[in-house]
Every structure is written in structure tokens, then in C-alpha cells.
Fold each of these.
Amino acid sequence: MNSTELEGIIRTILTEKLASETGKVSNSEAPKSIAIFDDVDSAIKAANDAYRRYHELPLKCRSAIIATLRAELEADIPYLAEEAVKETGMGNVGHKILKNKLALEKTPGIEDLKTTALTGDDGMVLFEYSPFGVIGSITPSTNPTETIINNSISMLAAGNAIYFSPHPGAKNLSIWLIKRIENLIYKTCGVHNLVVTVATPSFENTQLMMQHPDIAVLAITGGPAIVTMGLKSGKKTIGAGAGNPPCLVDETAEITKAAQDIVSGASLDNNIPCIAEKAVVVVNQVADELITQMVDYGALLIRSSEDVKALKAACIIDGGINKKLIGKSTTTILEAAGLPVPLKEPKLIIVETAKDDPLVVHEQLMPVLPIVRAKDFEEALAISLKVENGLHHTAVMHSQNVSRLNKVAQLMQTSIFVKNGPSYAGIGFGAEGFNTFTIATPTGEGTTSARTFCRLRRCTLTNGFSIR
Ligand code: NAD
């Protein structure tokens, strides 16, 4: 018997045991619709019923669900990556495989819900994390399946049910994945509809969901318009909004490593991750060396003023970003600009710009990285703060000067600050720390995990229980 067969047997035994322990779940109670509903109201009602049943199950049921998702979804990852690129027209299959694997393996489960206790002469107080109910989770087109996997693990570990509002531009694959996750949950714990959505995800349906009385909390992963809409809804909103991560390089940095890290971070999935480096601000003294090393590591430098003009004409429209090129490959962007395409596809296109260039001040979400020179560290810091623009998202810095690193981290006030690494180190890729694809920026929860999606409750016992 191999390990997969053994796992299957253990899961079946566990499911039957959980069902018999609670006496509340059985196949005969299957609802009429499962996972995908015709209308928002029916979907949320079904999720609310599922939440009530889930709340009565033991914690080990939540762990079993997460173990099942980790074990079973792994084989689907290449499909998810290929279909996401096909449906959204954005990103890179190989990188999407890595991102989905990261979400599946490094999103924390119920171990994230740490109970704390205070005890003393007057008794004991417990602080525990409890679920909210049904969470309305709005997911982006840029990390469609990564966000559904990541939020499913976090929110289910916290004991919630989830109504997903996938981006209409990724709806077919999102619906496929939600159905798949629902089925795996049901097989593990016998409860249907812990994750649901509608057959026609649309902006209108997202707005209906935001107003629904049975949605306890909104978790919005997307651009500024939708996060603002959530904040105006009157509901508690965990807002994971846009970023524009600057990458500051000073004259003390290890330039070869900095160059390699920047090319790797800014080219990930064609630069669509919100955490990816969006502009480099480099102290003049090391700028030439940094650019040379970036080119050595596979970046293409657009140099002549004519070529720079052509590149910008393709990438920028009316002072904003050309949405048609978001998430496209370097080859597609060079072709759109009418520039020659090298035989070996460049990892990244780099171009020197002024500090107020549209490519610098806007979140471009494409593998075209502007580089701005600064006369010294202080000027580089001032420019970097303007690039981040108070979004509280992500900033990266390459330096060996600890007090400067400390100063920038303090002034930036970003949810993620990466020192001497690629931006994706900040979401646990090749680095310490757990993963998330929902980084709550304007609302301040930062890198979300199960405990973010909980109420913190206090439970007091008087005249006991202190055994010190
Ligand atoms: P988007 O804002 O276009 O869409 C996000 C979600 O909002 C989708 O589900 C979409 O259907 C919905 N939406 C957008 N406008 C709406 C409207 N008017 N009415 C109802 N629903 C609406 O974002 P996107 O292009 O899919 O994703 C890219 C953006 O998201 C970038 O700005 C990126 O920085 C940000 N993002 C942030 C995080 C984070 O964790 N902070 C993660 C991923 C993406």
C-alpha cells in the first residue's frame, strides 16, 4: 500500500468518526445546490447554514480539511497555473506553479489560533479566537487561484464559511476551484457549502454580496476602487489594496546580489504580484554597476532615447498604465513597442526614468522596471517614500548599513519590508515566515492568517483557576 492509499483510508475513517461524534452530518442531508448558486442570496444562506454546522464540529475537523486540501490540491496546481494564464491572459505558468504551491504549503492552519490565559489571585481569563460567520472574500484576477487557496485555508482554519466573489476575468477557473475545494471539504467532514459562489460572478453580484445582512466581514483583495467600496459598505472590512513597492539601493549594498534579487522579484509572474518591486531608486555612485549586473542576470536595458520613447508610448496611455499590457511577457511588450525582441526572452525590461515618470508613480504590473538615480541616501529615501505613497504595502531595501535599514523601515510604515532580498521573501517564498496572498494594507492587519479572520473573545472565570 502506498502513502496516498494510506492517507485515503485514514481520511475515510476520520470522516466517519467525525460524523458519528457529532451525529449531525450525513449524505441524506445534502442540500439542493452545492457550491455554485444561481443567485447571491441563496449562496449566502447556504453558506450560513454550513457555518452553523461547521461551528458544532470539533477543531480536528478543521485540521482534517486543511490536511486534505494540502494533499489533494497539489496535483491540480499545473492545471490551475495553465488555465489562469489562459483565462486572464496574464502571468507566467512556471511562476504561477510556484505561487500556488507556496499558498498551499505555507498558509498556516489552526495552529495560528493561539489561546492566551491570564491567571492570578482573582481567577483566570482566557482570550480565544472565534469565527465571524460567513466572510465575503473578493479575489483578484492577478492571483486568482493563489488567493482562493490561501483564503480558504486561513478562513476555514478560523472556523468561518466563505462566499467568494471572484474577479469576472478569472471566473471559469475560480468556479472550478471553488467546486473542487467544496467537494474536498465535504468528503472530509460531511458538510456542504462551506465555500460557495454564484454561477455568474459579476460586479453587480459583488455589490449585492457586500450589502447582504448575513455577510459578517468583507475581505477584499484588489485595487483601490473595490477596497474603497468595501470601506464605505458599513461592514467590517479587511482591505488588501494596491501597492507600488519601491526598492532602495544604497552605496553599501552587495550590488551583485541586489541586482539578482531585483530581477528575480520584479519579474515574478510578469510583475503582477502586488508585492513585486515596481521602481528601483539607486544612489548614483552604484547605479551603473547595478544596471550592468541586472543586465548580466537577464534584464534588457532600453537605452536610446528613441527606444525609450517607443517603450513608453506602448506602456503609458494618457499618463496612466496601458491596461492591455498588464501581466504580459517582455516579448509581448517589446513587440507592442515595435522594438527588436532578443532570441532569448529577457526576464525583465529596465529603463532609466525621472522620479515623476508615470512608470514610477503608478503601479504598472508589467515586467518593465523603471530605475531612478538619486544623488545620495537621503534623496533616495525621499523619492522612495513618494513612490510608496502611503499605501502601507511593501518596500524593499538593499544596504549593509543597519541604521539606514532601520530608519527606512521606520519611515516607510509598510506592511512588508524586505531587507537584502527579493520582494517575494516578504510572503515567505524562499524565506522565513508564513505565506499570504491577502496583505491588508489600508486597514492595517498586514500579512493575514487564520487569526485575522476571527473575533478575539474574552472568557473570565472568577475565583479560579490559578495553580501557581
Ligand atoms: P481589481 O480591483 O480590478 O479587482 C479586484 C476584485 O474587485 C475583483 O473581484 C473584481 O471583480 C472586484 N471589483 C473591482 N471593481 C469592482 C466594482 N466596481 N464593483 C464590484 N466589484 C469590483 O483588481 P485586479 O486587477 O484583479 O488585481 C490587481 C490589483 O489588486 C492591484 O492593484 C494589486 O496591487 C491589488 N492586489 C492587492 C493584494 C494585497 O494583498 N494587498 C493582492 C493582490 C492584488
Amino acid sequence: MPEINQYLASEEPLFRDILIADDSIENLRLLSILLTAQGYTVHQATSGQMTLKAVETLAPDLILLDIMMPDINGYEICKKLKKNPQTYPIPIIFLSGLDNVLDKVKAFDVGGADYIIKPFEIEEVLVRVRNQLVFKAAQQEICQLNAQLETRVKERTQQLIAANKQLEQIAIYDSLTGLANRSKFMEQLEQSLSRAKIDSTYQFAVLFLDCDRFKIVNDSLGHLVGDELLKQVANQLQTIVQETDLLARLGGDEFGIILSAIPALDQAMEIAKQIITTVQEPFYCNSYEIIVSVSIGIVLGSPDYEQPEHILRDADTAMYRAKDLGRGQYQIFTPTMYKTVHDLLKIETDLHRAVKQKEFVVYYQPIVNLGTGKIVGFEALVRWLHPQQGLILPEEFLPVAEETGLICGIGILVIEQACYQLSQWQKQGFKPLKIYINLAAQQLNQANLVEEIDRILTETQLDPASIKLEITESSMIRNLQSTKLLIQELRERGIQLSIDDFGTGYSSLSQLQTFPVNTLKIDRCFLRNLDGQTDNLGLVPVILSIARVMNMDVVAEGIETIEQLSQLRELSCHFGQGFLFSEPLNGEDANQLILQNPQW
Ligand code: C2E
Ligand code: MG
Ligand code: MG
């Protein structure tokens, strides 16, 4: 400690009050003169009693104590003073004529600080006195520093406790809405589950809420408005839940509620209904009037659940079901819902492998000239040759493939196989055949699509005009800008385009006009009513006249009956496709079909 050195070095000790106790008047006088001359304040005592009295009243900084005194000896006095906490710190230097080791040892034993033998040398007394006083000063400084340190530690501890509380707040509360956050929610859910496991009468439920189309609000009105909306929704929800329940923001536009101690499921349904009606009222955020709805999944807590995460997962599944069924409603979780999700997950894992191992085959369905009966081309339709489940139809796996983005990889495999097959046919002499290939919505935004098509065209040496890409009307509308760009690039190469499932996607005529498309494919739902009666033609004649005006040709999809065929012929629909002619076939069977066709 630097402070101690500082005192040792200083000339003037801090403490100056000295009591000299000695029954020899001679000694007293001598020492008094000596110490006073050095600037010390000196008090004197000539007996043990006097010494004790003087210490009590004067509280000296140091005592020079003679061992041999008539009433009480120095050792006894020292013992007494050292027993008393008040006088304990006063350093005592013994003065003695006894130059005996045992006496010195005893002096230190009873608490003496030092020992001077009479007759003393003046310099020795001064040095020893001074040393003790400096030491005392240093000790006091240490005490003070210690006390300061202690207060600082206390202050810091208080600050840390406060900071900790703040961290705790951050850790369990959502900063935007002030509601509990996901981790607090999970903690509480775990407690509810544990309680249900030991108390069979305890019943709880979990509600999983998701704001419908919140993304649209966020994207179109901005994040500030989105945040404001979430705050207001949170406030509304708060007015509905009881104090014993827990309302939390689980993230984004998702909220969770734990209803504790409810008598039955009815209660949870009641609250869900109340939430749905309350949230339906318009919200006013930054001068916008916003209408939102929520979809809610409900799960009844059960001790059979192993983990709280599983309860939340099921509530989430039920919420998605509610969204599927049209949003703004609630659904109660049932195990079949889990199975559906589980199956989809399995398909997803399997699909990843399938893309890697190219487990896809292309089937071909002929497109026929309705006037001549000749095959003009084939639509390429993908099938998944699953190692265990056999042939799987597109509707079973394409939705998952689209959701996961795997569709792009699958799409390229299809284009590759279909183009290779067509080049084989053309080499065999079936020159005029065209191939119709479906493009999924996501492929319209696939960065390397055109590049891949170029590569395949080079590899197969096909005339680009014998390829017709099918884009469904709905995906075209959803991706107007990217579709336009893509179509332009494809047109530059001479590749043809066709609108699939036409009539189901609400495109306007003006939009249609801006797309340089060669073909419209009438969705098969429009053919269902063609039963030979002229009253039931529905939209088919309208679509045919639109196509004629726009100089497009038309393929009618899903022709299954002779009646449909003859009516389409009467309406001068040029091309058709359907089970009446042939189901989709594998490459070899399609080859046979071509050979049997009157054209060749
Ligand atoms: P799509 O492009 O409209 O294809 C026509 C669908 O109608 C095919 O179903 C075909 O088998 C079926 N079909 C043809 N004629 C008849 C008929 O007379 N009656 C009935 N009931 N159905 C008929 P598929 O092969 O199951 O394909 C379903 C959909 O999957 C296709 O509809 C298409 O949107 C999509 N798809 C198929 N292959 C691909 C592909 O390689 N890529 C992409 N992106 N989508 C594909
Ligand atoms: Mg198609
Ligand atoms: Mg179609």
C-alpha cells in the first residue's frame, strides 16, 4: 500500500498525544521534556490507577508504560487496556529496567507494541515512539480505506442488483408490447404441464394466435404502422385475458395465451370467440384505419404431453388449420392434424433425397388436333418414382416442392428429360411434334432458368419453337413483372408460351393483351358441363372468341367423353387433351401411341 510508505516517510506523525506512566518522577520529567521538545503533547501518570483513569479521560494516541509500578504493574494495565475495545488500538511501549528475554516476551504477550530498556538512549525512544505513531496512522488509514471499499462494494452490489433486474425484464418481456415474451411463456407452460401431471383436477389450455395478412400491413404501410398495430392488438387482448392467465407475444404477429385452471374446453372456445370479435373492430394507427383478423389454434393441456414445446407445436398446427379454413376463426387441435403435418414433413425430407437422386420421371399426354385426330404434341407431366411408395402424382408432392423451393430443381430435371425425349422423337422422323412443359410460379423468379434452358437447347439441338412453356394464369398474375421479363427473354429465343388453367385466375383482358402468348389452355372444370346440351356451354365459347380475337390457339383440357369432343369440334376448338385420347404415358408407351397414330 503506497499510503503506508507515505506515512513512514513523513516527518510529522499524525498523532501526537502521549501518556507517560512511570512512578519515577525523574524519568517522567526527562521523557516529558524530551517529547514536548519534539512537538508531542504529553500527559503524565505516576501510578497504575492514575494511568487507567488518564487513558479513559484523555484517550491518548500512545502510552509509554513502566512495568514496575507500586499499585498495579504494567503487564496488568496493558492486559486491561487490550481487553477494552475502546482502548485496544492504543499502542503501548513498555519501559523497563529488566533486560530479560522472558520479560520482553511477556510484554509482547500481553499486547505491548514495543519494549525499551532503561536507562534509555534518547534517540531510541524518539524513533520507537515515532514508528508506533506512524504505524498507527497507517493502520487507521487502512481501516478508513477498508470502510470506503466496503461502501463502494455495497453501492456496486446495489447497482448490479438493479442491472440484473433490468436484464431479467429484457429476458422475459417483449420490448414492443410489454407483454411476456416467448421464453417466459415456455417457462409458464412448463409449470402448467408439471402441475397437470401431479394434479389430475388441474385443467389448462393454450391458444396460439396469428394475425391474418399482417405482412401486407407491414409491407404496404411500413414497419412503424405494423408495430403500432401490434401494440394495439396486444392491448385489446390484454383486456380479454384474466389476471391468472398469461398473454405473451411469441414473435412477429404471433401471440400465445395460457388459460390456467379452466373448467372445460368450452371456456377456451368462449375466449377464442371473444378475441375474434374484439379484434374485428377497426384499429386506428397513424391515421390509417386497419382491419385485421386473427386465426387461433386451441390445445387442451394434458398430462400426456411430454414437453411444453409439443403443446405449442399442436396449438400452432391447429392455428394453421384455422388459416387454411379461411382465417378469422379458431380450430381445436386434433391428432389427425398432426398426422397431416407429419406426412408433409416426411414428404419434404424424402423430396430432398429425391432431387439428389433424380427419382423423377416424365409422363407424356398427347395433345390432339380435334379436326384431324392427329397428335400435335405432348404435355410433359412429372411423376415421382418413390423407392417404397411407387409412382406418386404431382398434386401429392408439388405443393411441398413449391413451399420448399425444391420445385426449381425438379423443374429443370423435367425440362431436361422432356427435351431429350422430344429430340429422340424428332430424330425418328416425328418432326412436327411439340412438347408442352409446365413452369411453376417459383420458376418464374428462378435466376438461372433461362441459362439452364439455353444449355438444354444446345445439348439436345432442339428447335426452340418446338417447346411450349405453360404458365398458369394465377402464377402469371401473382408475378406480373418477373413474368413479363421472362416471357420477353423466352420470346427472343423463339420459345412458345401457353397460359395454363385459363379461366380460373381472374386475369383481365387488358392484362392478357400485354402478354405475347401463343396458346390458351381451357381448364377442365369448364368442360365438365359439356353434356351435349347447348344451354350448358358456359364460358367455353367466350374463351374461344377471346383467343380468336387475340390470335391465340386453344387447347381444351380434360376431354373425357365423346359428347365433350363433338361439342368442342362444333365450337371450332382446334386442340384437345384428355383421357378420351389417352392418359399420360411413360416415354415408351407414348412412342407406341405415336406409331399407331394416323399421322405417321
Ligand atoms: P395441368 O398442367 O393442368 O395438367 C393436366 C392435368 O390434368 C394432369 O394431371 C393430367 O393427368 C390431368 N388430365 C389430363 N386429362 C384429363 C382428363 O381427361 N380428366 C382428368 N380428370 N384429368 C386429366 P397431373 O399429371 O396429375 O398433373 C397435375 C398438375 O400438376 C398439372 O396440371 C400441373 O399443374 C402440375 N404439373 C405436372 N407436372 C408438372 C411439372 O413438371 N412442373 C410443374 N411445375 N407442374 C407440373
Ligand atoms: Mg399444364
Ligand atoms: Mg391445366
